[in-house]
Design goal:
The protein has helices at residues 11-29, 65-76, 88-91, 160-164, 171-175, 181-193, 196-206, 213-224, 233-238, 247-258, 321-332, 355-358, 364-375; strands spanning 150-151, 157-158, 275-277, 297-299. It is mostly helical. Strands 1-2 form a two-stranded antiparallel sheet. A two-stranded antiparallel sheet has the order 3-4. The longest helix is centred in the first third of the chain and has 19 residues, at 11-29. The radius of gyration is 22 Å and the shape is globular. The relative contact order is 0.17.
Length: 399
C-alpha cells in the first residue's frame, strides 16, 4: 500500500521541509526568463553538502607523482596474488566504476572482468567502488583523519593503507590456498625485490630501494586517493551553480530529506559510516549466511556514482535503484522475514531492523524523484586509464 510522504514526519524534519518548500516557492516566483532555480537554503547544508575540492593525505604518506605511479602499477599487477592471476583492479575496475558489476566478487581462479567474469570462488560481499574512498568517514563540521577512515562493509579496518593489504591475504579474493596467510606478504616482497624495475620504482617513490609491507600499502593508498569524483551536478549546485540540477532533482533532494534518507545518508559522502541492521535478504550464492558483525549490521554505503556500481547492497541483492527503493518502502510498511515477505531477510524480525529504516516514509512518487536526485550525484570525470604494462611483465590486471 502506498503511503503519503507527509505522514509521521518529525517536527524537526517538517520544519526543514517546510522551510525548503517556502524558499523554493519564493525563488521560483522570482526566477528569470530562463526559469533558473537558485542555490538551496542553508538548512540543507547542515545535513548534506558538496565534497571538498582538495583530498586529504596523511602526514606520514604524502602524495608524489612517483608514489602514484608505483601505486598504480601495484594496483594493476597480479604479482600481489598467490597464483599471479588476479589484481586489485580485477574486482575494482574502471570499466565498472572501480567496482565489478557482480553481486558477489569472483575471486581467485576466475577469468575475465566485470559481468563477463566467471569462476566458482566467491567473495562474501559486493565489491564497493574505490572512487572517493579518500573521503571515507567525512562528516559535516568535522576534519577528516585519513588514517582513521573506516573501510569495508563492516568497518573492520581503518585507512586505505590498512585496507590495501587485506585482499592479498584473503584466500577467496587474491591469496588462494597455495601460500599460507602468514607467508603471503613476505612472498610478495620477495617477488618484488627480484624485479629491478620495482626496486627503481620504490627508490623513486620513497628514497631507497627497500620494499616493505608499509611502503606497498602506502603506494597503493596514494594511487587510490587520486580516484576522485567531486564535481557532480549536486556538487556544482551546492557551490552556487543555479542551473546544475533540474527541478525534479531538487524535488528529489527535498524528498530525500523529508522521507528520512538523510538520517543515515548524510554528509558530503551521503553516509554516516555507521553500522545498521536492514534485513537485506541473503544471497543464495553463498554457502553460509553473512551476518556482518554478528547481527546483520552493515555500513551505510555512499550514494555517489551509483549509476556505475550496480548491483547494490552489501551482497548485491538489489539489481536496480528502483529495487532498492521498493525494499525501503517495504520495510516502512512493516515487512519482516517471519511474515511471508520474501524481500526481507528471513533471519531478521521487523523489530530488529534499525528504527531509522522502519520509520522511512517512502512511496512510489517519492522514490522516482529521489532516484532523479541520486543521478545528480554522479560524476564521470575521474581517472579510468589502464596501464599498457606492469613492471612484473605479467598480464595487466590478471587473468
Amino acid at each position: 500500500m502506498m503511503k503519503s510522504i507527509y505522514k509521521k514526519i518529525s517536527p524537526q524534519r517538517l520544519l526543514i521541509f517546510n522551510t525548503i518548500l517556502l524558499a523554493l516557492f519564493l525563488i521560483k516566483s522570482c526566477a528569470d526568463e530562463d526559469d533558473q532555480l537558485f542555490a538551496p537554503v542553508s538548512e540543507i547544508q547542515t545535513i548534506i553538502d558538496a565534497l571538498p575540492t582538495e583530498v586529504p593525505f596523511p602526514t606520514n604518506n604524502e602524495m608524489s607523482t612517483e608514489k602514484i605511479f608505483l601505486g598504480k602499477q601495484l594496483y594493476w599487477d597480479p604479482i600481489l596474488s598467490g597464483n599471479k592471476d588476479i589484481s586489485c583492479a580485477t574486482c575494482h575496475h574502471p570499466n565498472n566504476g572501480y567496482a565489478d558489476a557482480q553481486e558477489l566478487s569472483i575471486g581467485v581462479n576466475g577469468v575475465g572482468i566485470g559481468k563477463e567474469r566467471t569462476g566458482s570462488i566467491l567473495a562474501k560481499r559486493n565489491a564497493p567502488t574505490v572512487v572517493n574512498t579518500a573521503f571515507n568517514g567525512l562528516k559535516i563540521g568535522k576534519t577528516l583523519a585519513p588514517l582513521e577512515a573506516p573501510m569495508f562493509w563492516d568497518n573492520r579496518m581503518v585507512s586505505l593503507e590498512n585496507q590495501a593489504l587485506g585482499p592479498p591475504l584473503s584466500a577467496e579474493e587474491m591469496r588462494g590456498t597455495s601460500i599460507p596467510e602468514h607467508l603471503m606478504l613476505s612472498t610478495i616482497i620477495t617477488r618484488l625485490d627480484a624485479i629491478p624495475a620495482y626496486k627503481a620504482a620504490f627508490l623513486n617513490a620513497f628514497g631507497s630501494e627497500d620494499i616493505t609491507e608499509e611502503r606497498i600499502a602506502q603506494a597503493i593508498a596514494t594511487f587510490e586517493r587520486t580516484l576522485i569524483a567531486n564535481n557532480s551536478d549536486f556538487d556544482r549546485y551546492m557551490r552556487g551553480d543555479t542551473t546544475a540540477m533540474t527541478e525534479q532533482q531538487i524535488n528529489g533532494m527535498n524528498a530525500f530529506i523529508n522521507v528520512g534518507c538523510a538520517d543515515c545518508h548524510s554528509g558530503p559522502m551521503f553516509s554516516d559510516y555507521e553500522l545498521h541492521v536492514l534485513g537485506i535478504p541473503d544471497n543464495g550464492k553463498l554457502t553460509e549466511t553473512d551476518t556482518g558483525d554478528g547481527n546483520y549490521a552493515f555500513r551505510t554505503p555512499t550514494l555517489r556514482n551509483l549509476l556505475d556500481t550496480a548491483p547494490y547492497m552489501h551482497n548485491g541483492m538489489h539489481a536496480t535503484l528502483t529495487d532498492v527503493m521498493n525494499f525501503y518502502e517495504d520495510i516502512g510498511e512493516g515487512g519482516d522475514g517471519g511474515g511471508g515477505n520474501a524481500v526481507i531477510n528471513r533471519h531478521i524480525s521487523n523489530n530488529q531492523i534499525d528504527e531509522l529504516a522502519r520509520t522511512l516514509q517512502m512511496d512510489d512518487d517519492a522514490a522516482d524523484e529521489i532516484i532523479a536526485f541520486l543521478e545528480a550525484l554522479h560524476d564521470d570525470d575521474y581517472d579510468k586509464s589502464i596501464p599498457n604494462s606492469v613492471l612484473s611483465g605479467l598480464a595487466v590486471g590478471g587473468n
